């Protein structure tokens, strides 16, 4: 971490912040922040504040007990001016209509910042997936697919895994859709197992992009990767893949964690010797000589902090304690709006999720291309194309960051909004 960054952070004036926002409020505020930097038709901004459509469906299933239970499912479709809607499908007890809309807006920006020809969507079912048997989860997925069948499809809206769903869930969704369609339609969902049209390299793609963006950020700030100290919260698909790649490039991973706590070693952790969440769930601390709580991991004096577990972990309450030189967001929404404001005042750069973890949706796009062309790519090709896309997106965001003197988050949103607004201006409003 540079001395310049360290001293400027100690000079932060005392300020108060508004209470934390919902995902939808945050998405709209970020839209207006980005729009304020661009000479945009205000009517386009007004249109982008609202989703194009939110589908709410009842999903009845028979439980193992024989009783019928009815769950509520949503599919929010925000904007499709640049192509079909794209976004995850989550099974979580706190899924709401508004959360789906807010996350759909973020997906519009994520696809646009990567220049992928998709728009933003998000869906979910308000359910605790841990309380479902595998057969109940399959029935829930197939019935939800049937309910939203008219509004999804390879050229309409393409779901992907998210919290509480996985490649198997996408395989069921694809099968249910295909059975009704009369032919196999692999392009209706991404994040599927490779045996049914999934892409090699999809699983590790978000972690790979986090590592690539971290490397680019280090180059930008003049920090050498060898000796760079990194703390990673969450050792799942995103965190473990990012940590291992950075480790292989010479960085020193001093802390990794799972839901039970963090492993800490200032001399560096051999990341390959610790199983990821997928390889052995929640096992990080059992391999550790020294453990620290997850809250302490967030405050370690490291060059780069990568929160890759869940949302809302850096908040107005603890952002003052963050000692990292830079935060790279591996999870979706790990920094709350209040936390973001504190880090901005303290001049700690935050590389936003919509850029850093966008490797996931980018390889989902590659998967969709493979599905509609009926041709699989090699892992080398997936890596080469992903690396090139991430570098291009980084350079475009960095240009806005440097030219406009804004935060990295604003810079990414500006790139995304200018592409979406440009498409709206060019297409116009019908009728
Ligand atoms: P995962 O389930 O593979 O791993 C999550 C990890 O976080 C596990 O190690 C788990 O133990 C840990 N964890 C859970 N609760 C925790 C807590 N309270 N404190 C500390 N650690 C905790 O999940 P993932 O796929 O790596 O996703 C992580 C984040 O990245 C999520 O926010 C997800 O939305 C986001 N994301 C995932 C993808 C993807 O394709 N996998 C793409 C983009 C963004």
Question: Can you give a write-up of this model?
Answer:
With 431 residues, the protein is α/β, with parallel strands linked by helices. It is 42% helix and 16% strand. It has helices at 3-10, 23-35, 42-49, 97-113, 134-148, 167-181, 205-221, 237-248, 294-297, 337-345, 353-356, 359-373, 379-404, 408-427, and strands at 53-62, 68-79, 85-92, 119-126, 157-161, 229-233, 252-258, 261-264, 291-292, 304-307, 326-328, 350-351. The strands form 2 sheets. A 7-stranded mixed beta sheet has the order 9-8-7-6-10-11-12. The chain has a 5-stranded mixed beta sheet with strand order 1-2-4-3-5. Strand 11, helix 10 (337-345) and strand 12 form a beta-alpha-beta unit. The longest helix is centred in the last third of the chain and has 26 residues, at 379-404. The protein is globular, with a radius of gyration of 21 Å. The protein starts with a helix and ends with a helix. Mean pLDDT is 94; it is low at 1-18. The structure holds nicotinamide-adenine-dinucleotide. Nicotinamide-adenine-dinucleotide binds at residues 163, 206, 233-239, 257-259, 277, 282, 294, 308-311, 330-332, 357, 360. Residues 163, 206, 233-239, 257-259, 277, 282, 294, 308-311, 330-332, 357, 360 line the site of nicotinamide-adenine-dinucleotide.
Note poorly predicted spans: 1-18
Mean residue pLDDT: 94
Largest sheet: 7 strands, mixed
Strand content: 15-25%
How many extended strands? Answer: 12
Written as H for each helix and E for each strand, in order along the chain, the element string is HHHEEEHEHEHHEHEEEHEEHEHHHH
Helix content: 40-55%
How far apart lie the N and C ends?
55 Å
């Amino acid at each position: 971490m540079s001395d310049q960054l360290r001293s400027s952070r100690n000079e932060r004036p005392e300020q108060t912040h508004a209470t934390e926002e919902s995902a939808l409020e945050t998405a709209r505020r970020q839209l207006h922040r980005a729009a304020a930097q661009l000479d945009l038709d205000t009517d386009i901004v007004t249109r982008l504040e609202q989703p194009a459509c939110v589908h709410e469906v009842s999903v009845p299933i028979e439980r193992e007990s024989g009783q019928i239970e009815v769950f509520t499912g949503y599919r929010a479709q925000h904007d499709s001016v640049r192509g079909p809607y794209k976004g995850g499908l989550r099974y979580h007890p706190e899924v709401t209509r508004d959360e789906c809309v807010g996350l759909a807006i973020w997906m519009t920006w994520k696809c646009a910042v990567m220049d992928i020809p998709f728009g933003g969507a998000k869906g979910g079912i308000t359910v605790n997936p841990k309380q479902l048997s595998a057969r109940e989860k399959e029935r829930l997925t197939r019935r939800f697919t049937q309910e939203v069948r008219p509004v999804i499809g390879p050229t309409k809206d393409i779901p992907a895994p998210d919290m509480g769903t996985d490649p198997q869930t996408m395989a069921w969704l694809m099968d249910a859709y295909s059975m009704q369609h009369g032919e196999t339609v692999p392009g209706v969902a991404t994040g599927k197992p490779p045996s049914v049209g999934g892409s090699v390299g999809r699983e590790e793609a978000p972690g790979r992009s986090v590592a690539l963006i971290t490397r680019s950020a280090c180059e930008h700030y003049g920090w050498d990767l060898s000796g760079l100290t990194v703390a990673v919260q969450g050792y799942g698909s995103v965190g473990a893949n990012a940590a291992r790649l950075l480790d292989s490039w010479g960085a020193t991973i001093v802390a990794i964690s799972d839901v039970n706590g963090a492993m800490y070693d200032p001399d560096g952790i051999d990341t390959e010797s610790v199983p990821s969440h997928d390889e052995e769930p929640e096992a990080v601390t059992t391999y550790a000589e020294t453990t620290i709580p997850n809250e302490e991991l967030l405050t370690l004096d490291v060059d780069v902090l990568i929160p890759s577990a869940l949302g809302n972990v850096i908040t107005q309450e603890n952002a003052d304690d963050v000692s990292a030189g830079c935060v790279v967001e591996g999870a979706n929404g790990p920094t709350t709006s209040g936390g973001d404001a504190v880090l901005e005042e303290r001049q700690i750069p935050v590389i936003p999720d919509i850029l850093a973890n966008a490797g996931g949706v980018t390889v989902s796009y590659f998967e969709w291309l493979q599905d509609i062309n009926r041709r699989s790519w090699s892992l080398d090709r997936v890596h080469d194309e992903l690396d090139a896309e991430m570098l291009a997106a980084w350079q475009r965001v960095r240009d806005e960051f440097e030219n406009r003197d804004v935060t990295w988050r604003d810079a990414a949103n500006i790139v995304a909004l200018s592409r979406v607004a440009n498409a709206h201006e060019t297409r116009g409003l019908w009728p």
